[in-house]
Amino acid sequence: MPKVSSKVPGVQGCAVERTLSLIDGKWKIVVLYKLLRGTLRFNELRRLIPNVTQRMLTHQLRELEADGLIVRRVYAQVPPRVEYSLSARGRSLEPVLMAMKQWGDTNLSSQGAQAA
Amino acid sequence: MPKVSSKVPGVQGCAVERTLSLIDGKWKIVVLYKLLRGTLRFNELRRLIPNVTQRMLTHQLRELEADGLIVRRVYAQVPPRVEYSLSARGRSLEPVLMAMKQWGDTNLSSQGAQAA
DNA sequence: GCCCATAGTGTCAAAAAGGATACCGTAATG
DNA sequence: CATTACGGTATCCTTTTTGACACTATGGGC
Questions:
Q1: A31 to chain B, closest Cα gap in Å
Q2: Any idea where the HTH hxlR-type domain is (chains A, B) (predicted)?
Q3: Selected residue with higher pLDDT from B12 and A99
Q4: How would residue B8 be classed by pLDDT, with cut points 50, 70 and 90?
Q5: How many whole angstroms separate alpha carbon B63 and alpha carbon B27?
Q6: Which nucleotides of C are covered by protein (CB under 7 A)?
Q7: Does B3 contact strand D, using a CB cutoff of 7 Å?
Q8: Mean per-residue pLDDT over chain B, rounded
Q9: Mutation choice for B interface testing from A14, A49, A52, A110 by most B CBs within 10 A
Q10: Are B25 and A107 within 8 A, CB to CB?
Q11: CATH code for A15-108?
């Protein structure tokens, strides 16, 4: 799906489309999902999402931040410390995430469902 | 987002990811959304979704069908008649669609929300 | 005979998304 | 002194996705 987030101001689609446009990208959902449980640092996210590359994770986090779904807090420490957490707006996506998880658990019978 | 539907059998992600992988693609959501209200013919869908090209619509419909979310019924008529409707599985996605719509309506204040 | 509608398909090309890899500065650790 | 961890950037390349456009068959209307 074509990325829209923070790029095209006048998105034309319906609410559903526009919602989806914020959470597309291969890893955004997972990131949001992980953050649902609490603040995480950059490398914690990397470790939680094994297949994501640094570049991709950075990218997706930047977009999520630009869309106001997550908050990025940088600590002026010497080994850099950057923490990511859901914004209020991001947290409000919980029903959507949960609806997807629910559906997946029910309709895509598989194992790793809870692991995410 | 990379398409997974019916291409890679062993999808690895969590339930949320796998769910999303079925409904990505620029137009799938809209298509499902439109079909929520009832059966539609190919060109009806085209007219309802102004910016979709024939090729894209065909493509997305085929994938949705392959994923068992919609049903394609062809009538052996002379001007071809093909009707698309949601399968039970497709209809079961309603909560997800509605959660997204709800969120969009609430968080992306704009007009065309109900039009979809 | 010509054009329209229906529901596509095929081909080509552009654009976007994603991946691989290398690199940065600093400080602690060995 | 070399290595590791941190949180990235920059560059290049491949794959995926999307779009433009032409083409198909058939039957009916004019």
A1: 10
A2: 14-112
A3: A99
A4: very low
A5: 11
A6: 5-11, 16-22, 25-28
A7: yes
A8: 84
A9: A14
A10: no
A11: 1.10.10.10
Are B97 and A4 within 8 A, CB to CB?
no
Query: Residue A9 — φ and ψ, nearest 5°?
Result: -70, -50
Task: Write the CB contacts of B16 (distance below 8 Å, at least 6 apart in sequence).
Answer: A29, A30, A33, A97, A100, A101, A104, A116
SS3 assignment, position A17:
helix
pLDDT band of residue B16 (cuts 50, 70, 90) is confident
Q: Which position has the token pair 């010497």? A: A78
Helix (H, G, I), strand (E, B) or coil at B46: helix
Q: For residue B41, what are the CA distances in angstroms to B50, B61, B72? A: 15, 11, 9
Phi, psi of A105 (to 5 degrees): -60, -40
Mutation choice for B interface testing from A32, A101, A103 by most B CBs within 10 A: A103
pLDDT at residue A43 is higher than 90 = yes
Return d(Cα A70, Cα A32) in angstroms, integer: 8
- Chain segment B21-39, per-residue pLDDT in tens: 888 887 899 999 999 999 9
pLDDT at res. B1: 55
Task: Assign A75 to helix, strand or coil.
Answer: strand
